[in-house]
Design a protein that fits this description.
29% helix, 13 helices, four-stranded mixed beta sheet, alpha/beta, 417 residues, elongated
């Protein structure tokens, strides 16, 4: 086991390069299952979840070569249709192989992902959509088994916007017979990135980024050549770090159009955010103003930035209210922030944060990916030393985060626990 030790109180300054987005890279890797040939993906981050995806692709019969941030996937000879429990349980995104396998091979068997530390995220909307496209679905012994000679186009309405469901059905519909219309679809930038990649493969997709996506199925696709979009959540985490430490950070590669809600709230809190030709610059203010936020599907404030923003509000000069409307159980980082001196009260899905003059370092424990980032940010701003345990969560979504913070002047190191 490893932990991160932070000697806080330093003002962060300098430039950081934003890595490729995990939440875009995973569906792109699984999209390679739609057709044979040699696929090439650039700007793929080195993360635990990416390694899990590589293992899953190999299990299904694809061959994968890594050259730094470049992935080459040869998927001509798939010989398995099962995503086993041991891989799916470590990464819920593994369920995204369901649509591509079913569309290409007519058969897929995928373990049910089960619960999640931040709340249940059922895949019933994925299955309902595939059934509408003609798939026969069976649930037994903890697995979903789907069969279809060839999927057919359908009009599908999501009861709730679902990123994974939209991605799964968009990939499946690319090889279906006829036209598929996804209503109340998710609008996240990662959906747009996947649609652009599928279009490069020969798919016909319109409306990605809106709540209505139209896919005209084609008979075959060709191998993918694509570069993964930059990670808006990693960028947001460094933006909050600049605000919390009264720092001055340039984020090379960050795309402001993907983060309008976060940028608006950071400016409201007193940070100066400047759009540059190649990214963003964030300058913190000595006086952090309290801001109310409510997490919502894109283009609203992202749930994946809620924990980090709460850490910022713990230093604000006043009281802020944070409402989590996307996932239940996503306030598990609150108890750990309280160990650092944060004044936070929870009632249902709402947290009331009374800002303080400062935080004080203490041993804390991460409970999930974004909670890990929240505690690292709090430690960077806190007095004295903070130790963050269970950082394997962090490695699922942040590439060399301690190295990047050291480049900005932080005193942070990873050690064996």
């Amino acid at each position: 086991m490893e932990k991160i030790i932070i000697h806080g109180g330093r003002r962060l300054k300098g430039e950081v390069a934003i890595s490729g987005a995990k939440n875009a890279a995973l569906p792109l890797l699984f999209a390679t299952l739609l057709t044979g040939g040699r696929h090439c993906l650039d700007n793929v981050p080195a993360l635990r979840d990416i390694h899990t995806a590589e293992q899953l692709l190999t299990t299904l019969g694809a061959s994968v070569e890594r050259h730094g941030s470049r992935f080459e996937v040869e998927a001509s000879h798939l010989n398995h249709v099962e995503a086993p429990y041991d891989l799916v349980r470590t990464m819920r995104a593994s369920v995204l192989v369901l649509g591509p396998l079913l569309a290409r091979l007519g058969h897929a068997r995928v373990s049910l992902p089960g619960g999640c530390a931040i709340g249940a995220r059922p895949i019933n909307l994925h299955l309902k959509g595939l059934e509408a496209m003609g798939a026969r679905i069976e649930l037994s012994h903890g697995y979903v088994e789907a069969r279809a000679r060839r999927l057919r186009g359908a009009r599908i309405y999501f009861d709730l916007p679902t990123v994974g469901g939209t991605e799964n059905l968009m990939m499946a519909a690319s090889l279906a017979r006829g036209t598929t219309v996804l209503e109340n679809a998710a609008c996240e930038p990662e959906i747009v990135d996947l649609a652009q990649a599928l279009t490069r493969m020969g798919a016909r997709i319109e409306g990605a980024g809106s709540d209505r996506i139209v896919i005209e199925g084609v008979d075959e696709l060709h191998p993918l050549q694509y570069s993964v979009m930059p990670d808006r959540i990693e960028a947001g985490t460094f933006m909050v770090a600049a605000a919390m430490t009264r720092g001055d950070i340039r984020l090379r590669g960050a795309r402001p159009g993907d983060m309008e809600a976060l940028i608006s709230k950071l400016r409201e809190a007193g940070a100066e955010v400047t759009v540059l030709d190649d990214g963003l610059r964030v300058q913190g203010n000595r006086h952090i103003r309290p801001v109310n936020i409510k997490t919502l599907p894109h283009p609203g404030f992202p749930t994946d930035m809620q924990a980090q923003f709460m850490a910022l509000m713990a230093l604000a000069e006043g009281t802020s209210v944070i409402t989590e409307s996307v996932f239940e159980n996503r306030f598990m980082h609150v108890c750990e922030l309280q160990r650092l001196g944060a004044d936070i009260a929870i009632e249902g899905s709402t947290a009331t944060v009374k800002g303080s003059r400062g935080l004080v370092g203490a041993p804390v424990m991460a409970t999930d990916l974004r909670a890990s980032a929240c505690l690292v940010l709090a430690g960077l701003a806190a007095e004295n030393t903070t130790e963050v345990a269970r950082i394997y969560h962090l490695d699922r979504g942040y590439e060399r985060i301690e190295e990047k913070f050291r480049q900005l002047g932080a005193s942070i190191e990873r050690v064996k626990a």
